[in-house]
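Journal club side-thread
Mid-discussion, someone asked how the predicted structure for our own chain would compare to the paper's figures. Pasting it here so we can look after the session.
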Amino acid sequence: MRAVVVTQPGAPEVMAMADVPDPAIGRGEVLLRVRAHCGKPRHIMQRRGLYPPPPGVSDVLGLEAVGEVVDIAPGTDTTLRIGDRVMCLVGGGAYAELLAVPACNCMPIPDGMSWTDAAAIPEVFITAYQGLVNSAGSARVTWHSCIRSPAGWAPPPRRSAAPSARGASAHRARPGARRPASPTAPSPSWSGVTGSPRRCRR
């Protein structure tokens, strides 16, 4: 398969396309044909030699990816099927045509969502959703001053007697981000996702 490799620590020019061995999958894993992935600051640090991957993890860049399931390891306990469109978090290796990933790290992509929009969900979107909706509880946050919101999403407003900025950051949502249809329901673009990946059993 082809993958983006880092030939030596340095500027973007050190990244190159190369032929590398296809990843092998073991029990509990699925193989994805990668359709899109998301760029992150850690990738820049890793490219510069400042953030090496954990032991045993692919040195190919990429922490989250979306794609189609093309193989499932024998004995894997999963409801996934060949051809399913999924998004996932991984320790590395997403900048490649194929990716081995634990089945329990995969989430279904909502119907109608593009590959590129889905690529921004596994880490960026879910981190924001958990922080602003789940962790914030009944605290009220300013919906337009939260995070860089993929696909124009903004978190549903929360009601509280005393406003709180807990969970908010200095980043602002994209101009034109729309409010959800109701104050208690997530945006329709999020409604097809059932939640963050559950912990993989060891």
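Post-session note: The longest strand covers residues 29-37.
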